What we know:
mainly alpha
Amino acid sequence: MKKIFKNIGYDFLVVLKYISNHILGILRLLLEIVLLIIGFFVFGIVAILGVIYTFVKHIIKGDYSIRKQLVPIVRSINLAQDGVANAAGGELLNDALKIPEGNIRYGQWFETISSMSGLLFQYVKDTWLRRFLDKAFSIFEKNHCTNAITDMQEFYYKNNR
């Protein structure tokens, strides 16, 4: 800390600005954590009530179809969890897998770990994680990570390398 202030010359206003910038960052982080906790409960309750409502509504109407009502809900939940894992674990995955700096890296909430593994395989390098995911999902489909790449991702990363 002393070294930082020595480099900026002990100017009181500069020091105050430096400290206030960090305090604002900490306060913003605390606000996000509070919103995360509140959102966890609110969104969890809405999700549970939504599944129950959909199930009961279509049972009463007599037109319940697991394929049309329940599968899309469960799939959306799985994709959301995958996005959260990619966002939260992005830095860990990038460091552990030694992903070079560039525009194809883990860490975006709107992309799945599988699709990023497939993109890395196509444009950068192969990883043990991609091989593991492809093997784990081989009972459902062949080349899971490559198939997980959306058309939008393919277009973007092909044209912005």
